[in-house]
Specification:
Structural class: alpha+beta
Number of strands: 6
Strand content: 5-15%
Helix content: 10-25%
Distance between the termini: 57 Å
Number of helices: 2
Largest sheet: 4 strands, antiparallel
Strand order of the largest sheet: 2-6-4-3
Oligomer: single chain
């Protein structure tokens, strides 16, 4: 095997990039072969409480995102909390997978954008850091 080669990819993407867009780019540019399959197994399920969502709606909709990075972008995590100006629940589920031991599935069917600002938490995957207090029952 020869030395590793680095590539700079220049591409113009829509304001909201998806995994499918990234996969299509890799398939086109690098002839990447992708195989998708559903596997059974444990997941975390993101759902709605009986009272619905109490999240604050974002100031704009998907079509009105003012600039790149304003929508569908979450920052921080664990000890710093989650922060986003306009994210949907699929974005949150995908971001939370970074700190879990299994996939997080959005089962809310809520299609709005929300403002997210949470407090920090401890990951159960990080040894030596105790978890936060238990949540009160819904």
């Amino acid at each position: 095997m020869g030395p590793l080669r680095r590539f700079d990819i220049q591409a113009k993407a829509p304001s909201v990039a998806t995994k499918d867009l990234a996969t299509a780019l890799l398939e086109e540019r690098f002839r990447l072969a992708v195989h998708h399959e559903d596997r059974g197994g444990p997941v975390y399920s993101l759902g709605l409480a009986k009272v619905g969502t109490k999240l604050k709606r974002a100031a704009f909709r998907d079509d009105d995102c003012p600039d790149e990075g304003s929508c569908h972008t979450l920052t921080d995590g664990q000890g710093l909390g989650l922060h986003g100006k306009a994210v949907d629940l699929r974005d949150i589920a995908a971001y939370l997978e970074n700190w879990t031991d299994r996939p997080v599935v959005d089962r809310t069917v809520v299609e709005s954008l929300f403002v997210i600002d949470t407090e920090g938490w401890s990951s159960f995957l990080t040894p030596g850091i105790p978890p936060g207090p238990p949540l009160p029952p819904p």
